[in-house]
Amino acid sequence: MTLTLVVGGARSGKSRHAESLIRGHPGPWTYVATAEARDAEMRERIARHRQQRGEGWVTVEAPVALPATVREAPAAPMLVDCLTLWLSNLMLGGRDVAGAAEDLEAALSWRAGPTVVVTNEVGQGIVPETTLGRAFRDEQGRLNQQIAARAATVILMVAGLPMTVKDVK
Predict the structure, then answer these.
(1) Where are the transmembrane segments (predicted)?
(2) Burial of 23 from C-beta contacts in 10 A (0-12 / 13-18 / 19+)
(3) What pLDDT, in 10s, does the model give residues 32-43?
């Protein structure tokens, strides 16, 4: 199993870079989407991303059941986009975040095929004003650290430029 974590801020080029990493492996490729199309803007964004990805991708929707989806997926190259929306879905649904994070880490550790996971860096900005915002920032930081510890490669995206911060051969 090869696990790569691609982390960065909003519009930093995370998804584009993650897709290019997966395309470096023979297809078909599995795209695990955690977004939920709750409004028109998000529906447009999802449609645009699907169109940009092009042929060769099998899309699986997993807004909450990400660990099970990872466990049950074939060994084909897999892109998970993204942990940030998955965590948001868990928290807004009142689910057990710590337990789900442990389940995801275990599922990723058992994957046979190459896997690239996208996540946001949310701790470098201002302190969130709300209790929920601060809790989210803290949980996202813990989740990112947990998956980064498991990953062989961690790439930080800054202004569309990939910076490798961990590379265990």
Answers:
(1) none
(2) middle
(3) 999 887 788 878
